[in-house]
Amino acid sequence: MVIHGAKVILVPAAFNMTTGPAHWEIMFRQRAVDNQCFMVGTSVARDEKAGYRAWGHSMAVSPWGDVIGELDEKPGCLIIKLDLGYVDKIRRELPLLNARRKDVYSLEFKGEK
Length: 113
Hints:
- With 113 residues, the chain is an alpha+beta fold.
- It is 24% helix and 15% strand.
- The protein has 2 helices and 4 strands, in the order E-H-E-E-E-H.
- The chain has helices at 19-35, 84-93, and strands at 8-12, 38-42, 59-61, 67-70.
- It has a 4-stranded mixed β-sheet with strand order 1-2-3-4, with helices on one face.
- A hairpin with a 5-residue loop joins strand 3 and strand 4.
- It starts with 7 loop residues before the first strand and ends in a 20-residue tail after the last helix.
């Protein structure tokens, strides 16, 4: 998606009480750095009475890998202004995307030629 110009990637997910504490934050931080874009992970709030107990902790991460906002496990709303110019700055200063091997993989969208 970044190769096609994405500067923000939204990921709706519901990690559980095992994978959430272990992987939720580190995954979003690393994907933000890998892709040099904002990553926004949205999760359902935790319901202790539900059959599936979600970790919650919706978060937004900068292209540098900094957590710029995070909720806890309770229902809530997080409002953050994303500076898309910051994506361009990071990509200029640390051009990781130039090392991508586009010759060994591709991303195609349905209906695209």
